[in-house]
Amino acid sequence: MSIEQLAETAQAMVAAGKGIIAIDESTSTIAKRFAGVGIENTEENRRAYRELLLTTPKLSDYISGAILYDETLRQSTKDGTPFAKYMAKNGIIPGIKVDKGTHALAGCPGEVVTEGLDGLRDRLKEYYALGARFAKWRAVINIGDDIPTGTAIEANAHALARYAALCQEAGLVPMVEPEVLMDGEHDIQTCYEVTEAVLRSLFAALYEHNVLLEGTILKASMIVPGKDCPDQADVDEVAESTVMCLKSTVPAILPGIVFLSGGQSDEDATAHLNAMNQLGALPWPLSFSYGRAMQSAALKLWSEDLKGNFSKAQGTVYARAKDNGLAAQGKWEG
Ligand code: 13P
């Protein structure tokens, strides 16, 4: 696989006014989302729900790619078309979550490291054959008393770099996601300092592992105060802090940065992205790779009447994609 092909895929993922829909919830995570709206977590319900999302009419107006979970990449629409094939035909690049989740990091209480490197080379080969052209690995950094430690930051950056190098070897664009969680009472300055350290460590590790940044996408968390911090930030403060932090840590050669929503409301996720894109010229496109902030309204609607509300729910997915696509260009009007 040439760097030109990787770079082309990466650029297509962040094409002007387009972003990614993250529908890569593991079976246990989707169980929680389904339980929240009273849907039974069966394989057929998961398949039907992912079909609803992926077959939203004209989704590619604002969506460049979708991140799937292993099970979903092997599933098909009800008329038997594999999802990856359906997506490729409809202008949506298939992506795949390849990490195996977070596990307690021994020796570092309260901290986690993401696992999944063993056997990854072979899994990536299979995912490529199944049609995936980019992959995602999520590292999680917790903020709390005396954490994160440098040890946890480095362990996670190292795993992300090894994953990214394996992806590029297999012809998949790595989406590297070091998520700094919003859980806690910490203030926005703490989030800024932690994220800055995490991104510095990540880009140092990517460099050490010879990862080509031209064929890599960063999935970042925004700079926000902890959910339980009494001093919440306004939209402009989040936008300015996030852009400042990214400018001081992320090389300009990266094709693009997309954000996770991380538990923000739909409206906040869109407003923050829009405000960032109104701050003037940036070295990279800033777009979205939202999970909850793209799906939650549609899931709720669908749960009220699985058959009757199918296309209504798709209308909601399209509306969220449109709002975020406009925000990715700083053109959202609220
Ligand atoms: P949220 O936007 O719901 O945080 O999910 C994005 C994602 O893919 C997290 O890994």
Automatic annotation (TrEMBL):
Reaction it catalyzes: beta-D-fructose 1,6-bisphosphate = D-glyceraldehyde 3-phosphate + dihydroxyacetone phosphate
CDD domains listed in its UniProt record: FBP_aldolase_I_a
Gene3D superfamilies to which the protein is assigned, alphabetical: Aldolase class I
Species name: Pseudoxanthomonas indica
Family: Belongs to the class I fructose-bisphosphate aldolase family.
Keyword Lyase: yes
Functional pathway: Carbohydrate degradation; glycolysis; D-glyceraldehyde 3-phosphate and glycerone phosphate from D-glucose: step 4/4
InterPro entries in the cross-refs: Aldolase_I_AS, Aldolase_TIM, FBA_I
EC number(s) on file: 4.1.2.13
GO molecular function per UniProt: fructose-bisphosphate aldolase activity
Taxon lineage: Bacteria, Pseudomonadati, Pseudomonadota, Gammaproteobacteria, Lysobacterales
Example GO biological process: glycolytic process
Pfam families for the chain: Glycolytic (PF00274)
Keywords (A to Z) from UniProt: Glycolysis, Lyase
Protein's name in the database: Fructose-bisphosphate aldolase
